[in-house]
């Protein structure tokens, strides 16, 4: 395959959906990896079984299908560790030749209670180092975020310890349910648009 054809194939994507997390088994079952969990849910649901490493990320191409509203989508999990997520996201956007407005970031959110999913476009990073890195790398806040609530740590527990703690089985099961909901929210954004997705997922949820 020529370089031109390879570039053309990579660029045939309408949406880039990125889940934030940290690579490695020691981080797999933590709150900070809710973005990775949601991407895995999407990959299973959409039949994206082939992963490859490119632009410092694991990526899987999703062919146009009814579940994506006929849109070609790429799923990605940056392998740069959370604090440098922007490096992978910027490289992927450039390779795909798409705008930040076609980017959906799925991430954990301390300021939302567990069991809550919110969708928004723009805004600051709120202290989330993955979002901070992406905003700095892209020099814009104009992308969509699917925010997966994990709640604040109990008592005086440090936030970093809280988000990186290994989840016990019951909490992990609840986190997986939230990740499924985040996957639903990302797909709804792609197929129905931001406003319709927000109306659906925000109705009846606190916060």
The succession of helices and strands, N to C, reads: HEHEEEHEEHEHHH
Tell me the number of strands: 7
- What is the helix content? 40-55%
Cα(first) to Cα(last) distance is: 50 Å
- Biggest β-sheet description: 7 strands, mixed
Please write out the topology.
Blueprint: H1 3-11, E1 15-19, H2 34-46, E2 52-54, E3 57-62, E4 73-78, H3 85-96, E5 103-109, E6 117-121, H4 129-138, E7 144-149, H5 159-164, H6 169-192, H7 194-202
Helix pairs in contact: 2-6, 3-4, 6-7
Walk me through the structure.
With 207 residues, this protein is α/β, with parallel strands linked by helices. The chain has one domain (3-202): Rossmann fold (3-Layer(aba) Sandwich), CATH 3.40.50.1470. The chain is 40% helix and 18% strand. It has helices at 3-11, 34-46, 85-96, 129-138, 159-164, 169-192, 194-202, and strands at residues 15-19, 52-54, 57-62, 73-78, 103-109, 117-121, 144-149. A seven-stranded mixed sheet has the order 2-3-4-1-5-7-6, with helices on both faces. Helix 2 packs across helix 6, helix 3 packs across helix 4 and helix 6 packs antiparallel against helix 7. Residues 1-11 have low confidence and may be disordered.
What are the salient characteristics of this protein?
207 residues, alpha/beta, Rossmann fold, 7-stranded mixed sheet, 7 helices, 7 strands, 40% helix, globular, disordered N terminus
Summarize this, please?
By secondary structure, the protein is α/β, with parallel strands linked by helices. It is 40% helix and 18% strand. The chain has seven helices and seven strands, in the order H-E-H-E-E-E-H-E-E-H-E-H-H-H.
């Amino acid at each position: 395959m020529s370089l031109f054809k390879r570039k053309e194939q990579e660029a045939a994507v309408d949406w880039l959906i990125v889940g934030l997390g940290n690579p490695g088994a020691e981080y797999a079952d933590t709150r900070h990896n809710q973005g990775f969990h949601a991407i895995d849910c999407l990959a299973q649901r959409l039949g994206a079984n082939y992963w490859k490493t490119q632009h410092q990320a694991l990526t899987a191409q999703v062919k146009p299908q009814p579940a994506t509203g006929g849109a070609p989508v790429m799923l990605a999990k940056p392998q740069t560790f959370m604090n440098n997520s922007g490096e992978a996201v910027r490289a992927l956007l450039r390779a795909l030749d798409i705008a930040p407005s076609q980017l959906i970031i799925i991430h954990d959110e301390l300021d939302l209670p567990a069991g809550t999913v919110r969708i928004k476009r723009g805004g600051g990073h709120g202290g989330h180092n993955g979002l901070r890195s992406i905003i700095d790398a892209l020099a814009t806040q104009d992308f969509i975020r699917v925010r997966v609530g994990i709640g604040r740590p109990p008592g005086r527990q440090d936030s970093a310890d809280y988000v990186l703690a290994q989840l016990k089985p019951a909490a992990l099961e609840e986190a997986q349910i939230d990740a499924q909901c985040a996957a639903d929210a990302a797909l709804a954004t792609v197929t129905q648009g931001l406003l319709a997705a927000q109306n659906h997922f925000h109705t009846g949820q606190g916060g």
